[in-house]
Amino acid sequence: MTDTTSTSRRDFLTAASMGGAAAVLGTVGISSALAAGTPAGRSEKPLKAAFSNAGLQATWCAQGKAAAEYWGKLYNVEVTWFDGQLDAVKQRAAIDNMASQKWDFVAIQAFGIGTLTQPVQKMIDSGTPVIDMDTLIAPLDKINVHSFLAPDNEFMGSSVTQALVTKLGGKGKVIMTQGALGHTGAQGRARGFDAVVKQYPGIEVLDRQPADWDVTKVARLWETYLTKYPQIDAAFFHNDDMALAAYNVMKARNRTNILIGGVDAMPPAIAAVQDGRMFATVRNPSCRIHGGAIIAGVAAVTAGEKAGTGIPKNIVTDGPVVTKENAPGMQWMEDHFLI
User: Fold this and answer.
1) What's the whole-model pTM score?
2) 316-338 burial by CB neighbour count: b if 16+ within 10 A, else e?
């Protein structure tokens, strides 16, 4: 049987080498040429990029660092890391340091909105493309970042909450454990949670406190909850690290009947969904966001892409809800830094 896809691709490449665009369009047709796309290529000269995310203690951030470095090698980009350490003051000091140096482009996930505006503006004013990742550095109408790569956080919050509520049959007592209150992603996840629970009069929200992505804070919170509330039917956590930290407390207190939902679909959470410790999670595609920031930066430098014209100002990077059925494939995709 003929592989028409491979044949078309060979025709495209042959035509491109022999006769440029006219030959390409004449060989495979306009629609096929457009479908082939024009991806950003590897930079001929080495580029220097600075990256920072909220804190490498979080597995999502650690995976993002690995993905950025992986895609950096493919695209000839040397990545220098400035760890946010899950602390707004420490990240601000790191970004002040970043802004004192020269970079071809930078990419930043802020621990909280508005905490990094001044040094980021300094870099933008110097002509450095700044890619915003996952959470807003500042409102997009207040700061001219090159692009904002982020998931739909309201979707993530609502989809996991809906899965929990559906499993409960629309009745039960639930708790939400939030991330950092200044993190716009956490704000969106909370709105998604609220949008679902308000539709179900039989759902009672027992408590909702921020834990700042800190597993130690989560453990303390959940020790209190398990003492205070004799019945907890489900819990929604703004990331998987917090969800699994709370599970360990629940297990120690013999309260493993509580349905657990998280966000990020990190490898430990995928394993927890498969073995039943967690009920659901949703993929916040750290690999796609951090790898996409590399590609966006390279295209800005080598192809002259401009904010809002060559690249959209806001790029949605959603991933699916993770179930036992799709968990193995999701793990494979993460292993190769694809999602």
Assistant:
1) 0.85
2) ebbbebbeeebbeebbebbeebe
